[in-house]
Specification:
The protein is α+β, with helices and mostly antiparallel strands. It is about 35% helix and about 25% strand.
C-alpha cells in the first residue's frame, strides 16, 4: 500500500514514514503539493482540509492515489489548552520553533500556575482514491517541562515531558517516541480501521 502525505514538514514526514512502514505502507510525497490555509477549529477539520487539498491536486494532474494528512498540536492546561490547533502558527507565521517553545515556557511561568499538565493531540485524515474519508485520533498525556531538554525530535518535543519515560520527547530516540506518541496512536487506530 502507498499513501501520499499532505505535508511539507520534514520532521513530520520522517515520523509518518517510520510509523507507516511498520504496517508495510510506503509514504510518498507530491512535489507540486500546495498547502491550503488551515481554517478549521479542530485537528480533524484541519487534517481533512489538507487531505482534500492534496487529493484534489493529485486528481488535477491525473494521479489516482490514497492520501493521508496529519494535524496535531500541544495543549497546555495552564494556558487554557493553548496553543492547540494553532501550535504550528503560534507566535506568528515567522516565529521559529525555538521562539514558540520559549514563549510557552515564559507564558506559563508568568501565569503563576503550578499546573504543568500538557498533552499532544494528533488527527489523521485518510482519503482513498475514490474520495472516501476516515479520521483517526491519538492523544498522549504528559507535562510541560520547566526548560528545554534534549536535541532530538522536532517542534515542541524538547518541552513535552513524558512521565512514563522520565524524559522529554527531545531526549528519547525516534524509535522510542514512535512507540508511545500521539501520532503513533493515531496511525495504529487508522490502520485498524482500514483493515476492517
Amino acid at each position: 500500500m502507498r499513501l501520499f502525505a499532505a505535508t511539507k514538514n520534514s520532521g513530520k514526514l520522517t515520523e509518518l514514514r517510520e510509523l507507516f512502514s511498520a504496517h508495510g505502507v510506503d509514504i510518498l510525497t507530491f512535489s507540486e503539493y500546495a498547502e491550503p490555509e488551515e481554517t478549521a477549529d479542530t485537528y480533524a477539520g484541519n487534517a481533512a482540509i489538507k487531505a482534500r487539498a492534496l487529493h484534489d491536486q493529485l486528481a488535477a494532474t491525473g494521479v489516482r492515489g490514497d492520501v493521508i494528512a496529519d494535524d496535531s498540536g500541544l495543549e497546555i492546561a495552564a494556558l487554557g489548552d493553548r496553543p492547540g490547533v494553532y501550535s504550528a502558527r503560534y507566535g506568528g507565521p515567522n516565529a521559529t520553533w525555538a521562539q514558540r517553545r520559549a514563549s510557552i515556557l515564559r507564558e506559563v511561568a508568568e501565569s503563576g500556575s503550578g499546573d504543568r499538565r500538557a498533552r499532544f493531540v494528533c488527527a489523521l485524515c485518510f482519503i482513498d482514491a475514490e474520495g472516501r474519508e476516515s479520521i483517526a485520533e491519538g492523544v498522549t498525556d504528559g507535562e510541560l517541562s520547566h526548560d528545554e531538554r534534549g536535541q532530538l525530535g522536532f517542534g515542541y518535543d524538547p518541552i513535552f515531558y513524558d512521565p512514563s519515560e522520565h524524559a522529554t520527547y527531545g531526549e528519547i530516540s525516534d524509535a522510542e517516541k514512535n512507540k508511545i506518541s500521539h501520532r503513533a496512536k493515531a496511525v495504529e487506530r487508522l490502520m485498524e480501521m482500514l483493515r476492517k
